[in-house]
Amino acid sequence: MASILPRFVERAPSAFALLMAVVGWSVGAGNYWRFSWRAANYGGGSFLFAYLVWLIVTAFVLAVAEYAIGRFGRGGPLHGPYNFAQRYKKFAAFAGLWMAWASFMILCYYWVVTGWIFAYMIYAISGTFTRHDFNAVATWNSLFGSWLSVGIGVLMMIGSIIVTGLGIRGISSVARIMFPILFILTAILAIYSITLPGASKGLEFYLIPKLESLVDPATWMQSLSQVIWSIGIAWGFFIAAGAWTRKRDDITFLSFGNVVNDTAVAWMAGLAIIPLIFAVSATPMEDIKAAGTGLAFIALPRLFHEMGGLAGYLYGLLFFTAFWFAAFTSLYTIHEVVLRPLKDIGMPPSQAAILTGILAIIIGLPTALSFEWLDYYDTVWGVIGLSLGLAAIALIVGFFVDTESIRRMINEVEPKPLIPLGSWWNILVKVNVVIPVIFFIWWIAYWEWYKGWGAGLHTYYTFPGIIILIIGGIILYYVASRTIDMLTGAGK
């Protein structure tokens, strides 16, 4: 079958600009409220060790693979996999659209979360956390589910529409400013936290391995889940970024730079949060176990209030500024993945950005008003959808092409690649096909779905969601197949 060329071709202005765009994509809200909580509750240093293993075995290996699809396939999530694959080309195109679809459903609630974080940044600027009458729970309850939070979230989406409408130059220009500031702010917070009296207990809790946790499957699966979410594999963005690369760009450098920078921010965020909790909180273990919104929007603001004075004000300001920078850079890059297939078939970038932005607001509105809907979207799309995408990347690069020839093409870049790929890369790409299957089996067993709603898997939403995934996948395959026929003229 003939290749299909995208109607809209972009190239990154420089390797640094592309790296900043990709790192801005990876470093998101999860680096702050997911990583710290999981590390603290799943073995501390043992979690960090398992995380490092997954970075090597899965994150770096599949980041290179995903870049290769976009680079050698010369297109985004639809065109790239189709052109790249030597066999099962329509299935490869479907797999790429699956990633874009999963990213769209995540976009549908990510604008809501980004709006919450922006609101808390405004609270921090106005000194809300250090007022004598501040109540963390009441403040959160007044924001969540309100039309004010919806309005702020819509403003975030409008900002994303503006940035993505400008293409790679808009994305990289914003990221080149926001990511370095984010990195510096997070480093300042980490340094300050570890110097507080009593922080040593938090450092021990966060960094010292707990040997019993190394043999606990939950430690390994939770760290894998965090790697998939945090590094951003199988969302489709690395495919889009691969299409932006120039011939002299080294995708092993881009992959390594992304993994290192993302992990550095997550690790520093943990240093900023965990020692602070032990130094300031009267009930550190309760605060440590507060996951997600409980940690970011209740436990931490309460700590800023307890710190009081200039220290509490500045810490809250720096934290939520860095937190929002991370969330917003991820918001518009997720948006780019979603609209890229539309740009590739000829829709103007501004129109694609507006269309997908409006749809994301409409479909995501329930998540702004109900935690149950937010958990549903996050579970079905953020766990199941991305796990299937991970397997798809490994299938396409490991079995739909001559993996050895792809490895040699990656190594042929001049000057020599930062990390020359050996035959180990070929093996690990193929191994990663089964890792999502193992993860999914563990996930079902771990959450004890048979206990119903209280078990945390939200049975009443998740299993209908799985049915939707299956039916939607069948429809999506048909759409991918018909689109390919239209673009190649095979349907005439």
Describe the protein in words.
By secondary structure, this protein is mostly helical. It has one domain: Amino acid/polyamine transporter I (Up-down Bundle), CATH 1.20.1740. It contains 23 helices and no strands. It has helices spanning 15-26, 30-33, 35-41, 45-73, 79-84, 89-126, 136-143, 147-165, 167-194, 199-207, 211-214, 217-232, 237-244, 251-280, 284-288, 293-307, 309-344, 349-369, 371-399, 403-411, 423-431, 435-446, 459-488. α3 packs across α14, α4 (45-73) packs antiparallel against α14 (251-280) and α19 packs across α21 (423-431). The longest helix has 38 residues, at 89-126. The two termini are 15 Å apart. The model is unreliable at 452-458 (pLDDT under 50).
